[in-house]
Design brief:
Blueprint (H helix, E strand, L loop, with lengths): L1 H13 L10 E12 L2 E10 L6 H4 L2 E10 L10 E7 L10 E5 L2 E5 L20 E10 L12 E2 L9 E6 L2 E4 L6 E3 L20 E2 L10 E8 L3 E8 L5 E10 L2 E8 L6 E9 L2 E9 L2
Parallel strand pairs: 1-11
Antiparallel strand pairs: 1-2, 2-7, 3-6, 3-8, 3-9, 4-7, 5-6, 9-10, 12-13, 13-16, 14-15, 14-17, 17-18
Length: 287
């Protein structure tokens, strides 16, 4: 029976048999805490953010998930990263059993579906939500580097991306919606990252935060040398809607705020160009 359940879990992850785009949840990586120069911990919470107060929505039950997070490998400071789970509010049998670092990804997943529906945890619609796990990341080096670890949810359309599966009306449903994936980049005072004084060794464009956002969000970029920098925002059709930076900048790290108050909800893209470097990322404005 256990093998059958494991097989079913794999099938649901490999084929998206049922989608529920109307489901509204919030997956939040938050409480980033540097407990030492070489160790950082953070929490992963899942909350039912649906405004409906019907019993059907209130009792959305968590089944399983896989949580893949991209990270800047330079953050390890030439050391080896170790990833582990410290604690979780999930029942013991449902706690993530596959926690590891693979390349530039932090991976955590559950490989088994609990057959007892009534014992499945209800995804709460009050903050902070269901604690999927308090995670610990450690480097074998003496300390982390001063490079930003540039965390972001792996949401690309491939097999190695974040997915959430829940029960709705006794039906197992993949409810993954990248619009509900957040990372709260608010470090504690022990953070080794100094974005205002450190000079980057290469060009970079970080994922905006918060994302999704309403109405403002932060765009961060780094340039290793003096040069002209252009940072522009485009809508889904490719039309330029805002110019945020259009001038010569000294080497360093910069944070630019984008205000979407006068724009409609939707997908937007921001593009940086400096010298031979160019990069584009997408962001979601939800009102």
């Amino acid at each position: 029976m256990k093998k059958i359940l494991n097989l079913l879990a794999g099938i649901f992850f490999l084929i998206n048999t049922s989608f529920a785009n109307d489901l509204n949840y919030k997956l939040n990586l938050t409480n980033i805490n540097f407990t030492s120069e070489k160790t950082v911990e953070f929490d992963i919470y899942l909350m039912n953010a649906n405004e409906s107060k019907t019993e059907e929505k209130e009792h959305l039950r968590y089944a399983l998930g896989q949580y893949f997070i991209d990270i800047n490998p330079k953050f390890a400071n030439s050391g080896t990263l170790t990833y582990s789970i410290v604690k979780s509010d999930l029942p013991e049998s449902m706690r993530p059993s596959r926690v590891a670092v693979s390349g530039n990804q932090l991976r955590m997943s559950v490989n088994q579906i609990n057959p007892d529906f009534e014992s499945l945890p209800v995804i709460p619609n009050v903050k902070p939500g269901l604690l999927i796990g308090t995670m610990k990341l450690e480097t074998s080096a003496d300390k982390f580097s001063k490079d930003d670890f540039d965390l972001k949810w792996s949401d690309d359309e491939n097999n190695f991306r974040t997915k959430i599966v829940a029960y709705e009306n006794d039906k197992l449903t993949e409810v993954t919606d990248i619009r509900g994936h957040y990372i709260d980049l608010d470090y504690n005072a022990n953070s080794p990252i100094d974005e205002t004084t450190s000079i980057p060794t290469e060009y970079s464009l970080s994922q905006n935060y918060p994302n999704p956002f309403n109405p403002t969000t932060n765009l961060e970029f780094g340039i290793p040398e003096l040069g002209f920098v252009s940072l522009k925002v485009y809508d889904i059709s490719g039309k330029e809607v805002a110019t945020l930076v259009n001038e010569i900048k000294s080497p360093g790290r910069y944070n630019v705020k984008f205000d979407g108050s006068n724009f409609a909800s939707g997908v937007y893209f921001y593009k940086i160009t400096s010298g031979n470097f160019s990069a584009v990322k997408r962001m979601f404005l939800i009102k």
